[in-house]
Design a protein that fits this description.
Elements lengths: L5 E5 L4 H12 L3 E8 L18 H14 L2 E6 L1 H17 L6 H21 L3 E3 L4 E6 L2 E6 L16 H4 L2 E2 L7 H10 L3 H4 L15 H8 L3 H5 L2 E5 L4 E5 L22 E6 L4 E5 L5 E12 L8 E7 L7 E7 L5 E10 L6 E6 L2 E8 L3
Parallel strand pairs: 1-2, 1-4, 2-3, 4-7, 8-11
Antiparallel strand pairs: 5-6, 8-9, 10-11, 12-15, 12-17, 13-14, 13-16, 14-15, 16-17
Helix pairs in contact: 3-4
Length: about 375
């Protein structure tokens, strides 16, 4: 078999990245595996054991697979960069009354940057990950499209990638479903790998308790934000809360305030340490503004275009019109009301299966 180009494959130790490495190896690429150490779970103070990536077991699993398949594997310690950028931003966003999107930031500013830098050092033409997405070149642009498995599609978290990054990126799993990936692992004799569960969305909060993480991360946080007001949409004080960073848009449970009908968090005001509660209908909006946008499919957006826009990862998307405002933001006008838009989360725009681009939700 004629060897293809050299590719650096990000290997977390999980099934997706492991099968991605297997496929590229079988296709004749010269594979180098790399596992990025981003976080020490022992220092997180969580109550549940990690099941996703970066644990010693996962690193060993990735290394063992590389040894068995006969390609080189390295470990890259990026804990400082990850902490300085991703963790600090995560905390800062909650303290600003927003809901952060750490996976997008990590992909854009940490993982791809670290991968491409090490790829250059190792003489690798390409990098590859186990994301369920696809990339192609069209009209001199590299375009991301949805993965074949719509239940696993991860194009939403890739909107921040640059054209330079996409030009060197491979997504080996984009044309397969998750059941097919599990079967591939089984067919190759990796039964334990095929049985591995899904990783947590926020890798550095292994117990999925972001409130506990914030309390451990920010000394004296509970005292600093205690005693804030719950207010209704007219501004009337209707109760006391535990501190605005511990609430998210759309939250209904844990409000410690009794009403005759359900109330939801509809707005968070960090400046006044107040949390606005309203009805489910108060969560509705038809207009959203997006900051720090990155346009992937086109060099420049037309003055106005139709798109299907998603306001969260598991959102199925809704028909909308997108346009650029004079201050450089993207304005989304939905044809019908959407619910639970959270500043700080990502809004992503699609044309068919193609990712037009995305950005961070600004004030709604």
């Amino acid at each position: 078999m004629i060897k293809k180009e050299k590719v650096l494959v990000a290997m977390s130790g999980g099934i997706d990245s492991s099968v991605a490495a297997m496929l590229l190896h079988e296709q004749g690429y010269e594979v180098v595996g790399i596992t990025m150490k981003t976080w020490d779970y022992e220092s997180s103070g969580g109550t549940r054991k990690t099941t996703g990536c970066c644990s010693l077991d996962d690193i060993n699993d990735a290394r063992l697979l590389a040894v068995e398949l006969g390609f080189h594997h390295i470990i890259l310690d990026i804990r400082k960069e990850f902490g300085d950028h991703i963790i600090d931003n995560f905390v800062d966003e909650y303290l600003a009354g927003r809901t952060p999107n750490p996976c997008v930031l990590c992909n854009t500013h940490i993982k791809w940057e670290a991968l491409l830098k090490r790829a250059d050092q190792l003489g690798c033409e390409f990098i590859a990950t186990g994301h369920y997405a696809q990339v192609r070149k069209e009209n001199n642009r590299y375009v991301i499209s949805k993965g074949l498995d719509r239940n696993k599609d991860q194009s939403y978290v890739l909107w921040g990638l640059s054209q330079e990054s996409l030009a060197r990126t491979l997504f080996p799993l984009g044309g397969f479903s998750k059941p097919e990936i599990r079967k591939m692992a089984l067919d190759r004799g990796y039964e334990d790998l095929a049985k591995k569960g899904e990783s947590f969305e926020i890798c550095f909060v292994p117990d999925n308790d972001y409130r506990g993480f914030l309390k451990r991360r920010v000394e004296g946080l509970e005292e600093k934000v205690a005693g804030g007001d719950f207010v209704d949409v007219e501004g009337n004080v209707i109760g006391q809360h535990d501190g605005y960073p511990f609430y998210t848009i759309g939250q209904r449970k844990g409000l410690v305030v009794a009403f005759g009908d359900p109330r939801y968090v509809v707005k968070i005001d960090a400046a006044t340490n107040s949390v606005v509660l309203g009805t489910k209908e108060d969560l509705n909006t038809k207009e959203v503004f997006v900051r720090n946008a990155n346009i992937v499919k086109y060099e420049k957006l037309p003055p106005e275009m139709e798109a299907v826009s998603k306001i969260r990862y598991k959102d199925k998307g809704a028909n909308s019109t997108i346009s650029t405002t004079p201050d450089g933001r993207i304005k989304i006008e939905f044809y019908e009301e959407v619910q639970g838009v959270a500043p700080g989360q990502s809004a992503v725009f699609y044309e068919g299966n193609d990712l037009i681009g995305g950005g961070f939700i600004d004030k709604v």
